[in-house]
Amino acid sequence: MGEGDAIWAPSVLPYGALGTLSHYPQLHFGRRMEPKVSEGGLNVTLTIRLLMHGKEVGSIIGKKGETVKKMREESGARINISEGNCPERIVTITGPTDAIFKAFAMIAYKFEEDIINSMSNSPATSKPPVTLRLVVPASQCGSLIGKGGSKIKEIRESTGAQVQVAGDMLPNSTERAVTISGTPDAIIQCVRQICVVMLESPPKGATIPYRPKPASTPVIFAGGQAYTIQGQYAIPHPDLTKLHQLAMQQTPFPPLGQTNPAFPGLDASPPASTHELTIPNDLIGCIIGRQGTKINEIRQMSGAQIKIANATEGSSERQITITGTPANISLAQYLINARLTSEVTGMGAL
């Protein structure tokens, strides 16, 4: 079963009150909604995906991995944490029903413990709620919200937890984040109800799972030099500096009010040329960025004009046309490739 094939459980129990599920109402599981009943109750393997920030992941892993090891041993669930130097990580919990929710409850109570510990060094008097984010196929979110928001309202009122379904899908996926906050017990009861809804309305079509991307390394230009930001330090980037200087000397359009050639005996700018690239559809988002921020940044840094063709039906690629001087085009290509490398391997310069 892949990461995107999450099957949701119908019941969540508070940690410490978990036994077998044989005395709980038997609900239907799996794609064909057939119950698999064993002597100990419902014997089915489930997968729940949680989205966590780095600090939360550190809390779950613990010193030398001791906390997550204990959670695995005591719950009997498999707990996998996605790799990579990412600001966000996916925590996948897989196992039989009772194991899943022992692990889930242990995580909720660990987060509450972290909140209590942080308050001992803080002047705050009111305890903030525990917050967990589930990753849910977008095709199931309509059922979770209900007609006119009726279902989500019912879940909030009956559990006392706050539930928010993100309006947008997570990048490069067909999943949305569902944020739950409240006391650990409220959260657990809330997830129980969410799981029932998920079972009643299985995902439609294929699910493309969300995979967090590595944090991009910012690039700044100062005094004609290019630097990449690593931690608290700006590291000179000689290759990018050369391309940047060339591009700035050979801008396709002279600055406003400047009519004299930039170099005696030469035109103000070499003739503009055009270069075309094709990029897979699933990677175009990392080039464009949220609301076009990345592509505008690349245009500004390189001095090139960059046009991205609209998606063509039946094609898995998009065409990018870069226009400018050779130096503009080289820098634009470098910046685009750095974005792609960062997206695919996490080792790009941007």
Can you offer a commentary on this structure?
The protein has 350 residues and is of the alpha+beta class. The chain has helices at 54-61, 66-75, 97-119, 141-145, 150-159, 184-200, 238-249, 281-288, 293-302, 326-345, and strands at 37-38, 41-42, 45-53, 78-81, 88-96, 130-137, 162-165, 175-182, 219-222, 225-230, 233-236, 273-280, 305-308, 317-324. The strands form five sheets. Strands 3-5-4 form a three-stranded antiparallel β-sheet. It has a three-stranded antiparallel β-sheet with strand order 6-8-7. The protein is globular. It starts with 36 loop residues before the first strand and ends in a 5-residue tail after the last helix.
Order of helices and strands: EEEHHEEHEHHEEHEEEHEHHEEH
Strand content: 15-25%
Largest sheet, described in full?
Answer: 3 strands, antiparallel
Name the shape in a single word.
globular
The level of helicity is 25-40%
Please provide the count of β strands: 14
In what order do the strands lie side by side in the largest sheet?
Answer: 3-5-4
